[in-house]
Design brief:
two-stranded parallel sheet, 51% helix, binds 1,4-dihydronicotinamide adenine dinucleotide, 271 residues
């Protein structure tokens, strides 16, 4: 997809971080936007940053609710009469906790938003995407969809699920020549509100600032890479120096990667 001008682009979780940067940059590329977030206030802030909202359709809902997502897809198609790009970006994490101590409710919540939200978003829009000569589905996984993160088992499980679904779909769409390019996105640490948005999060401002120093990439840079991947029809992108390092290490040696992860986890738990 060389040009995004007049393309209809759906972005979930557009009220903050990577989703907000994507919305602003897609708008600057001339795209028409259909934006979602479950936080109305932050979605409104994104709209006020963009300023000109003539070509923007918004809906506030929780992506883990199937009926609401399918209704959104119908409303977007009624509004714009087509869809070209769907970016399943909305996501949460549940903080640092061991796999064994994570409650079933917590696994269900994280998988509901991150994994089911992505599956609903892909399947609900696929019939429309397949009507176009070329279109795109982008699912935001993580470096923790390529490597299991200690103290992030719910998050890692959801992000591995996203990668599995997305890679299977990418191969099928190519196999059937549908014209739908499918991309799995794997950023490392990105400075956004993801940690601040953890339910019941009780880190001090100092701890949050220390954590920020471990997130080397910005949301703007991440959005640029995602837009490049859409234009180049890439099936997988790994974003950020930390993610690239860990990914390379994991392909080099499983034992050294495990040692690295243990040391990394010890460092993070001291914050
Ligand atoms: P963020 O917290 O700044 O933004 C996420 C947005 O999604 C928020 O506006 C939030 O209100 C919205 N959201 C959360 N749950 C929702 C739901 N159920 N329905 C609709 N909207 C919902 O976080 P960030 O970092 O911009 O996250 C975007 C995506 O990037 C997520 O999928 C995240 O897992 C992924 N990611 C983030 C990384 C990071 O270091 N920040 C690294 C790798 C992946």
């Amino acid at each position: 997809m060389k040009n995004l001008k007049n393309k209809v682009v759906v972005i979930t979780g557009a009220g903050s971080g990577i989703g907000r940067s994507l919305a602003i940059k897609m708008h600057n590329n001339g795209a028409k936007l259909a934006l979602n977030d479950f936080n109305k206030q932050s979605l409104d802030e994104t709209l006020s940053i963009i300023g000109n909202i003539d070509q923007i359709y918004t809906e506030v809902f929780d992506v883990s609710k199937k009926e609401e997502f399918y209704q959104f897809s119908k409303n977007v198609v009624n509004h714009f009469k087509k869809v070209d790009v769907v970016i399943n970006n909305a996501g949460i994490t549940n903080g640092s906790i061991t796999a064994v101590d994570t409650t079933i409710e917590s696994y269900e919540k994280v998988l509901g938003v991150n994994l089911w939200g992505m599956i609903y978003g892909t399947l609900a829009f696929m019939p429309e995407l397949r009507k176009q000569n070329e279109s795109s589905v982008v699912n935001i996984s993580s470096i923790w969809g390529l490597l299991g993160s200690p103290y992030q088992s719910a998050y890692s499980t959801s992000k591995f699920g996203i990668r599995g679904f997305t890679e299977a779909l990418a191969a099928e769409e190519l196999c059937n020549n549908t014209g739908v390019a499918v991309t799995s996105v794997h950023p490392g640490g990105v400075k956004t509100n993801i940690v601040r948005n953890i339910e019941g999060q009780n880190l001090t401002e100092l701890q949050l600032k220390k954590l920020d120093t471990h997130f080397p990439t910005t949301a703007d840079k991440t959005a640029d890479k995602i837009i490049y991947a859409i234009k180049k029809k890439k099936s997988r992108i790994v974003i950020g120096p930390d993610a690239k390092f860990m990914y390379r290490l994991s392909r080099f040696s499983e034992r050294i990667t495990m040692k690295f992860l243990v040391n990394w986890a010890k460092k993070m738990m001291k914050i």
